[in-house]
Amino acid sequence: MVIGVPKEIKNNENRVALTPAGVAELRKASHTVYVQVNAGEGSGFSDEEYIGAGAIMLPTIEEIYGIAEMIIKVKEPIAQEYPLIKENQLLFTYFHFASSEPLTHAMIERGAVCLAYETVEKTDRSLPLLVPMSEVAGRMAIQEGAKYLEKPSKGRGILLGGVPGVKPAHVLVLGGGIVGAQSARMAAGLGAHVTLMDVSLPRLRYLADVMPANVDTMMSNEYNIREAVKHADLIVGAVLIPGAKAPHLVTRDMLKLMRPGTVLVDVAVDQGGCIETCRPTTHEDPTYIIDDVVHYCVANMPGAVPYTSTVALTNATLPYVMQLANKGWQQACRDNAELKVGLNVVEGKVVYKGVADAWNLPLTAVNEVLQEEVLS
C-alpha cells in the first residue's frame, strides 16, 4: 500500500503520525511510505532519519495527499486540507467529529473513508489509541494547571503542593478514566489534596484502592459538583463518551460559586468540553478569563510535548496501520472488530452512531457498508 504522512498544520501541532522506526517496519512489509519534508522536525526526527528508514520525502502536502492510498495523521484535517482529500482515500487520525459539524460535512462530501483513532475500541470497552494521548493529557493538565494558578497568569497564587505550615491546593478531577486517574495521581504526587469524581461506583472502589492517601473519591452528581467547586483551586474536566459530545458537568452559573483565580482545565474540549464555558484554545493563546476564573482549553495538549507524544502514539497505532496496509481497510475492518468500530464516515455515509446523533444525520450500519464493498 502507498502510505502518506503529511506535516501537521494545525496551530502549534508539533507531533507527527509516524516515527522513523514505524517507517522501517512498514518498509519491511514492502509498503511504500511518503513523508512530507520536515514533518518530523517538531518531534525531533530529521528528514535524514526518515530517509535512512526507507521513506521517500516529498516537499508539499499536496503531493502527499495526491499520491497516498492511506493518509495517517495526528489531528483532524483542517479547512485548507479538505480539497486535497480524494474520494475513497483512507484517513486514519483523530477526528472528534461530534465536536465539529463543518468537518463532518466536509468528509461526507469528499467521499473519504474516515477511521478515527478515538473510536477504535477493544472488547473490554477500552480505547487503545486514545489511551497514550489521554495519559499525556492527564499529566499535562496538572502541569499546566499548576502554572496557571500562579499570580502572573491571573491564578489564585497558590503552590499546588503547599509548604510546611501552608495547606496545599485542592484539585477537583471530574471523571475517573485514563485522563482523570493520571491527573489525580500527578496532582497527588505534587502534594495537592485531590477529590476524584466518577459516576461508576465500581470504578470509584477501584480508584480508592489504588490512589495515594491524599486522593478522596466521590460520586459525581450535580449537587456534589456544586459543593466541590466552591473549595477547588484547580478543576480538571476529564469526561469522555466515546465518539459523542461530552456532557456539561460544570455549568456557567457554577463559575459564580468559584473563588477568583480558580483554574479550569478542560481536557474534554476535543469532544465539545465538559465545562459549559469552554471553547477551544491553542498553545499560542491558551487561556481566557470568565467571571475571574481562568480557562485553559487547548484542544491538542499533547502537541506541547511532541517527542513523548509522537513515540507514545506510534507505539499504539502502528499495529493497526500495519493491518490496514497489509489487508486494505475493508478486509482489516472485517477481520478486526476493534478497527471496525473505528469507522465513522465511509464514502459519504455516517456509520458511527455518536456522530449521526450529534448532527442529526442518517446512520448507515457499518456492516452494510462493508457488505457493499464485498458485493462491488
From TrEMBL:
Family: Belongs to the AlaDH/PNT family.
Keyword hit for NAD: yes
Domain called Alanine dehydrogenase/pyridine nucleotide transhydrogenase N-terminal: residue spans: 4-137
Protein name, UniProt field: Alanine dehydrogenase
Coiled coil: none
Example of a GO cellular component annotation carried by this entry: plasma membrane
Listed EC numbers: 1.4.1.1
Residues of the active site: 96, 270
Binding-site residues, substrate: 15, 75
Molecular function GO terms recorded: alanine dehydrogenase activity; nucleotide binding
Keyword terms, alphabetized: NAD, Nucleotide-binding, Oxidoreductase
Sites where the protein binds NAD(+): 134, 198, 203, 220, 239-240, 267-270, 279, 298-301
Source species taxonomy: Bacteria, Pseudomonadati, Bacteroidota, Cytophagia, Cytophagales
Any one GO BP annotation for this protein: L-alanine catabolic process
Alanine dehydrogenase/pyridine nucleotide transhydrogenase NAD(H)-binding domain: residues covered: 149-297
The gene coding this protein: ald
Substrates-to-products reaction catalysed: L-alanine + NAD(+) + H2O = pyruvate + NH4(+) + NADH + H(+)
Pfam family, one: AlaDh_PNT_N
Keyword Nucleotide-binding: yes
